[in-house]
Amino acid sequence: MSAQHAGDPAAFAADVLEEGPAEVEYEPGIAARRPGKTSAGGALIRDSTGRVLFVVPTYKPVLDIPGGMTDENESPKAATIREIREELGLDVELGPLLVVDWTPRNGVWRDCHQFVFDGGIVDDASPHDDELEAVVYLSLDEARPRIYPSLHRRLTLALKALDAGTTFYAEFGREV
Asked: In this protein, which residues make up the domain named Nudix hydrolase (predicted)?
């Protein structure tokens, strides 16, 4: 269920009904032939000194921001809220969308639309999930050797968007 309807399932159901009957295929099988694209949502959370909150996952060798992949029929914003609750035990009200970034296929992972939302200021976050070893607050320069270059570019854009009060579109972390 989308974040805007999270507190009101009846409103979500009404929107679904208003959309009308499910679309049918005029050419059988065309939908199944379309590529599956993933999406993920994450939050740019900072502490009161401006450092960025990174999670230390147990399942990959690099740091990441709080968030994760969307579940089926889940919006990126709802996934971000869910993942922050699961990972950090926090209920945050996300601010505006800062960056939409397309990333290409990488090994076993399909290409992906990645959404970065303003997660606000949170001091003293701690892990609340077995998937995390720890959390750390770092400047982007301090984090650079411990994160993927594309995430560094994406977060640089996110901080720029935060300062400018805008949203950026990027491809592999580079503004387009």
From this structure: 35-161
